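Subject: mismatched residue count in predicted assembly?

I count 595 residues in my input, but I want to confirm that the predicted structure covers every chain. Input:
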Amino acid sequence: MLFLFLGFRQGAEDQINSTIRKSYGDIRLTARGDRSLKEVKQYLCENYDRYLERTASQLSLQGVRLTGSGNYRESRIVGVREDYFRWLGDSIYWKSGGPPEPRGETPVSPVNGVLEKSYAKKLNLKQGDTITAVYESVRGATGKLRIQVSGVFIGNRFQKGGKLFLPLKTVQELTGETGKIDLVKINLVRPTEVNLDRIASLVSDKYRMTASVSVRKWNRDLTYSTIFSRVWALMGVILVLSALTIILVLSLGIYDTFYLDLRSRAEEISTLLTYGIHHGKLYLLNFLEITILLVLGGGAGLLLALTIALILANIPLVKNFSYLFIVLGGPFLQFSLFTPDLLIGFGVTSLAAYFASCLSLRSYLRGDVAEIVD
Amino acid sequence: MIELKGVTKTYELGEAKVQALDEVNLELSKGAFAGLHGPSGSGKTTLLRVVGLLETPDRGSYTFRGEELTGKSHGERSEYRKRYFGFIFQTFNLIPELTVYENVEIPLMISETGGDKREESVNRICEEVGLGHRLSHRPGQLSGGQMQRVSIARALVKGPELVLADEPTANLDTETGNGIIELMSEMNQRHDNSFLFATHDPTITDYLEEIRTIKDGRVRS
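Triage response: the counts match. Full output below for your records.
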């Protein structure tokens, strides 16, 4: 039970780490001025591919925010009435308004787009529907675009808001920046400090005029204090408190069991004592017995935990629960054994066993439970 | 072989004091087959525990093989028990997880007797008490009489000078009890050791060479 819990606790933490790394990248390259990072990315992929876990430009869809600010401020898709989105608040900036265009007015075949859930709900759109949007780029180009809803994006609390995702190629065409990649997120296979510094240094030296390099050294404090600080803090508190609770409850249970177990063997101990066993040897025997029990029990427990974890890790979580785990990388529970966790958990419960047993034996030897008179 | 003079033992139960032994005098010669007879609560077991060095008297002296034992430390008393005493209990006190052989082997393991000698001693004594064919059985597979035989074998395996038996037939029927007493009598003669019983069973007293009556913590005769 302890191993199972600690395994899933560590698994959840690994999933958080994985999500953060995927979202943020170990190294983040942004273009200087109007320059593109296409060449930089190509150089990295050709020369250091074995060090790279993934790069963000491998994604086929590019997010486009409907607001006038944010990471994609050079791309705007407009063409719906402002009051449809009033619920989103004052941060929304609209270039122009108007209801969705009727079908058939634009002869161009539709492009696939992915809508954020709340957006789709407001417009009463579902997968397969087609809408026509009026767009205007920052360079002043305007036009109409037919978009077929190929999917609905359900964002977590950090990804909410009126978003529309379009193929990268379409966005590049609309913004007139066909060949431009202005953001590359890189994850390393082994994000050690040395590896991070090495890749970051290479890019900085070679492409000083093109890219600005932001290195996210794989440091929890640094990463969690940025975008995921509240999630991490909450999850961290829950996971640590749960771990402490289960270790405490288990330790008390083990303490009780071992204390009573020795008491129930008073007859056996008294027999050994009558035949002249020394107290020191009795403690030693007791210590050896508990050690053997803990090693065998720990091994069996670990095996059982791994078996149960293997089964549980293949069962998808129910919808509501898996929504929570989007942040953690669900919908499957992840199991991961982390040595310090195991050592602490196993160590504390083992100490409880040794302590309870020694206390019980000491109490017996001091005559607290001795036969009084016949 | 043993001599107790003016031995007194009092237990404190909260504010109440129970005088278990009151100025007890007792002598036991080598090779004796003797018993302490008395009703329940008379102090038989306490006296047996004092003789067996499991309890220390509040007052009085205890001499064993000419040596004064009162005031000995825990460790010294353990050494004496290990070398000179054997114990037989009313409830047999066998370890249920161990076989007959392993149960009998316990005193030899505690006294760190070597492997070959240990094996030879266990096999010999088990044969003597009639359990040679039951060595691999566990206590749960034995009858009450057989369990007490294991207990006797365990008490005798290391060749003690004094065997203390606390109500050894109390959990047995009369016929089996008589068999056990006869066995102990035979062992007493064969091994030339001494036996001291605590019992309130009058049928046992027929087999005893010496009987001391104990009542309210005092030895009467």
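Residues 2 and 28 of chain B are 5 Å apart (CA to CA). Marking this ticket as 'not a bug'.
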